[in-house]
Amino acid sequence: MNKKRDLKIVFMGTPEFAVTILDTLLENEYNIVGVITAPDKPAGRGRKLNKSAVKQYAETKGLNILQPTNLKSEAFLEELKSLNANLQIIVAFRMLPKVVWQMPEFGTFNLHASLLPNYRGAAPINWAIINGEKKTGVSTFFIDEKIDTGEMIFQEEINIEAKENAGSLHDKLMYLGRNLVLKTVKAISKGTVETTPQPKNAISRTAYKLNKENCKIDWTASIDTIYNKIRGLSPYPVAWCQLVNANNLLDVKIYTAEKEIIEHTLKTGTIISTKKEVKVAITEGYIKILDIKLPGKRTMDVKSLLNGYTFETEAKML
Predict the structure, then answer these.
(1) Strands (DSSP E) found in the chain
(2) Pick from 12, 110, 128, 279: CA 20 to 30 A from residue 90's CA?
(3) Whether the predicted model's global pTM rises above the 0.90 cut
């Protein structure tokens, strides 16, 4: 019979997604000897330093916090070594150098919000929806030299609902991930972990880092492609496009929309506006905009927008 291992854990993470996992580990009385998170960043007009969600949470629990700018610096490596951790858990952090991930006796494992080997990379939740996937999930794996390629430990699957957006899927995967991390830690503690190599030649999709270019709506695309992009980028970082209205060219963000498949003869991008709705003509029908943000304005539903904003007859989306 395996003797239960006494775990001393270093947790690495930055956003809200990681906070839920860290909270669960503490609730289950695991020994967190250190928390590593991103350095504070200046934000807003006053350039006030912003703490990561993980740091804010860790402070309330009185945990030992490290915020290295350089993960290879001698000072950081010495400090990390002095914690005497025998397990490291990574949730939404950055790529680790080998000297860091190979340090603990029982390894370093990562929680990734996809069914690996699919959607390795920075934005797995968004891309699963953008690409119209019907299912996704969470995976735990031991880290190796490359991004999200290490030996698999556990995986859990979930369906993606037809109207799901990135925000609602994020929350579902966060709670699914919490349970999977717990299951993984228990197995490591008991010494019963069995790993499976990820298939080397699998055809897999990549979760590319999101940027302005790949968040832009292409109104010439299919109705499902446009609809999936809008929900896959909502509520963050949000799909955008350009609005031409009364000789003004505006960058607008579209948070929520509906699709309407119907034949018409309008040019792609033409805007149909009534007192209650705004829709954009595309090849297979219309994209009906529900929530939108104009430059310098707050996000609002279309009905509220139409109380004080007019779309001219020639208005169109580019």
Answers:
(1) 9-13, 32-36, 41-43, 48-50, 65-66, 87-91, 108-112, 120-121, 135-142, 152-159, 206-207, 239-245, 248-261, 271-273, 278-282, 285-293, 300-301, 316-317
(2) 128
(3) yes
Q: Which two tokens stand for residue 99?
A: 């000297």
Alpha-carbon distance of 292 to 41, in angstroms, equals 28
Q: Do domains 9-206 and 223-317 have the same CATH topology?
A: no
Q: Where in the chain are the domains? A: 9-206, 223-317
* Domain 9-206 fold: Rossmann fold (3.40.50)
Give the CATH class of 223-317: alpha beta
CB neighbour class for 126 (10 Å; exposed up to 12, middle 13-18, buried from 19): buried
Residue type, 231: R
Q: What is the pLDDT of residues 175-186, one digit of tens each?
A: 999 999 999 999
Q: Is the dihedral of CA 110, 114, 118, 123 positive or negative?
A: negative
Backbone φ and ψ of 250, nearest 5°: -120, 140
Q: How far apart are CA 28 and CA 183, in angstroms?
A: 11
User: What whole-number distance in Å separates Cα of residue 130 and Cα of residue 121?
Assistant: 15
* Side-chain half-sphere CA neighbours of 5 within 13 A: 17
Residue 310, both tokens: 């007019």
Tokens 């996704």 correspond to what residue? Answer: 136
Other C-beta atoms closer than 10 Å to the C-beta of 269 total 19
Percent of the chain with pLDDT over 70: 97
The answer to whether residues 311 and 288 touch, using CB atoms and an 8 Å cutoff, is: no
